[in-house]
Amino acid sequence: MTPLRIAVLGAGLIGRRHIDTILAMPQAATLVGVADPVLPARDGLPWFADADELLDRTQPEAVVIATPNALHAAQGEACCRRGIHFLVEKPVTATLEEVQALVRAVEASGVKTLVGHHRRYLPGVI
Q1: Are the beta carbons of 77 and 55 closer than 8 angstroms?
Q2: Closest CA to 6 of 32, 28, 42
Q3: What does pTM read for this prediction?
Q4: What would the pLDDT profile of 70-102 be if each residue is shown by its tens digit?
Q5: Residues 6 or more apart in contact with residue 93 via CB below 8 angstroms
Q6: Measured between alpha carbons, how far is 22 from 100 in angstroms, rounded to an integer?
Q7: By the 8 A CB rule, do 58 and 9 touch?
Q8: C-beta of residue 81 within 8 angstroms of C-beta of residue 109
């Protein structure tokens, strides 16, 4: 199996968890880059201040969007324009109008998407 080429947008608390998970599974995934305009680069990781530059230069097969909520819609649409599958952390977007536009973009592009909501599996939530 060829490892899936994944990029991560946002290297805050949740983004770092995704980064660490990807790095722990080299047989399944390769981290091709991280975009974060604020946080310092981690040693040995391809780091970008601009998400669009990361997407264009690394051409990932999938992206994790773990940026502030206000950026989710634009970054999801950027993935759709490039045909890149993506996982977006919750909440999906900042407004209902944005999520409706993102859903239309996903449907038109044919990319696959998933909302990261790990708590749905906690016993108290179930």
Answers
A1: no
A2: 32
A3: 0.92
A4: 999 999 999 999 999 999 999 999 999 999 999
A5: 69, 72, 73, 76, 99, 102
A6: 30
A7: no
A8: yes
